[in-house]
Amino acid sequence: MHCESPIKRRKSRQIMVGNVPVGGDAPISVQSMTNTETTDVAATVEQIRRIQLAGADIIRVSVPTMEAAEAFGEIRKQVNIPLVADIHFDYRIALRVADLGVDCLRINPGNIGREKRIKAVVDKARDLNIPIRIGVNAGSLEKDLQKKYGEPTPDALVESALRHVEILDSLNFHNFKVSVKASDVFMAVAAYRKLATLIEQPLHLGITEAGGLRSGTVKSSIGLGALLMDGIGDTIRVSLAADPVEEIKVGWDMLRSLRLRSKGVNFIACPSCSRQNFDVIKTMNDLEQRVEDITVPLDVAVIGCVVNGPGEAKEADLGLAGGTPSNLIYIDGEPNQKLTNENLVDNLERLIRAKAAQKQAQMDADARNIIAKG
Asked: Does the annotation list 315 as a binding residue?
């Protein structure tokens, strides 16, 4: 059951972060950040691989010291996903990770000192075709802006961003993206909306320091959802005080909900009530964990009774409508078979995987036909 999406993406310049396009007509990318000690190469590589497996397009790594920069070089050799180096103040670290294969530098030009140092970083980025992310944060605004505005405001965030943009423009460097993050939803949304009208570069969205898994997910969904529905945003990072893998899951859930990207199983499930003919909540908890590895876009409805079950199931790739004495399975909108509650999750997983394999085969065949005709 779909209403036509009203979202019209903001037009922006496209940049490349490694092999991932950001901006223009590229899909909105999902990213996260490691929280291991960067100097612990093995732990950081292991976490990067888990984040990548969850569906990340880009991963950011903090590089606060030259020792961490050397560790970054070892990490770069062991993973195959675009890496952003998060750097503050020391321009020499930026120069070093550039030589070690970084795919993007997160660095605010105005924070790294004299013009000669800024120019050295920009020249290196230009020579190696490395983009820069300007990352403005309400918690670390310049002192004069804090004094001017009294406290962080949307206008203060935008003014800070434009200062850094002006520096890069003066050096004829346009290969960058910008973020203006705040932990306050209204402040972040207002800042992004204003900045979106003032520059053409892609925007990296985030509600910074959003909170724990539950509260941070809610806050991020409200703020990023509002912007994405406005067509604003080219790459997103959900900031949670949780395992970074959870950030990727929430990011993908947002994009799936807004039909901005499709990957994996999109569940339509009822909250359950006394009409349910099977334990909907337990079934969903088990199913979500079991089919996390499926990447084929698939709509699966799990409805506990006959009131809404048939209507939702008919609109999904695969649907389950609770019934007595047996539950009814729909495939591609048509009744297919009945299932009892015994081994229900096992049988649902089997059917979901079979449908995913069928859909993948059809997608592969369509792709081959396009290539053959082209």
From this structure: no
